[in-house]
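Section 3.1: Structural characterization of target chains.
Under the original work plan, the team committed to producing a structural model for every single-chain target entering the pipeline before any wet-lab resources were allocated. The record below documents one such target. The sequence was received from the expression subgroup and is listed exactly as submitted; it comprises 404 residues.
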Amino acid sequence: MAALGCYRLPVPIQRRYTTDAIVLSRFDYGEADRILTLLTPGSGKVKAIAKGIRRQKSRIGGSLEPFAELRLALAHGRTFDVVTQVEVIHPWLRLRDDLVSFGTASYMAEMAERTQEERHAVESVYLLLKRGYEILDAGMAPGRVARWFEMHLADELGIRPDVDRCVECGRLLEAGERYRWVPPIGGVLCERCPGPPHDTAGMSLEGLKLLKAYQRMDVEALAALRVRPEVEAEVESAMRAFIPRVPGRGPRRRSARASGGSKVIFDPNDERAVHALARLAVDRIAWLSTVTVDGQPQTMPIWFLWVNGEILIYGDHRARRNANLEANPRVSMHLNDDGSGNDIVVIEGEARIEPEHPQVPDNPAYLEKYDGWIDQYADGPAKMAQTYNLPILIRPTRVVSIPG
């Protein structure tokens, strides 16, 4: 009997658990379910499924919404954890009533989602997002909340921009010199070090002071600051240029325009941009225009997926369009209008063929978006991949959005 002391019985894994959570994103799945991406303080980013939530008789349908702190009961599942019970702790209702605040809240959720790994607990990021929603709900200017969140998220990720010393030589910046904001190297460059000219990268002293304020001041002091609109705009542009350096999948919300072939940034404060993003997420059919080598435009209907700030298409490997793209990668894509010439979304961009990208059967997001369609029109993922096996990614350079 004493020998039994050498062995330990296995401890069963707890199947059910309870956690606080904020819904970062969601999409419909099947006839009545919904897939959720949650941010939790103890487990980080978690994928979960709410079964039957879209049925009228669902007990949790009205509670499991974004922009609220929830207490969830879940059960571990093979692919997704399963939501079994929901309690609303903080609903943050006021931020939902204003379109700009709503867009800013969406932007913050997306930043949190794309910078966090699944099942990697970072409680500080959860608390940061929660605090951001609290001050947004309390009425703080959405633009300042966004800049505060960007700066502190960069700090949590260990890439805080340097606004006190020159990032090149390490010298303390002086009040009387000229500064340059250079995101690729992590902050401000002094006038003595080589780099981009001041005409293209210059930053004002007031702009530098406001960046320091976002790093050091508490939210109450930030809310009370009086800053000229042009300085606010300068710092907004500076942080938008810096945010693409944040590790993750690449930002998706930037301004509705871009020039010089740069990647479009969908502005969370721009109603048109927010509307365009919403349609890119839910629309299933778009029309893609390419140009033949002799200059003839060709337009064809496509299925697509908005992912990582780009548009993914699975092209027919036999299509004439492939030669068009090799000769001229510039394309235009538009979504259907509302039938009356309103609700227009047109995206211009540059396309590239990515043969190493995962194919249709290995792309869960694509399978979820076209659930039912792939079986109905393409005889299943494997059959579809036999023909539509040429991944094409379109990097947007300009967006025209005219909501109906």
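The chain is about 30% helix and 25% strand.
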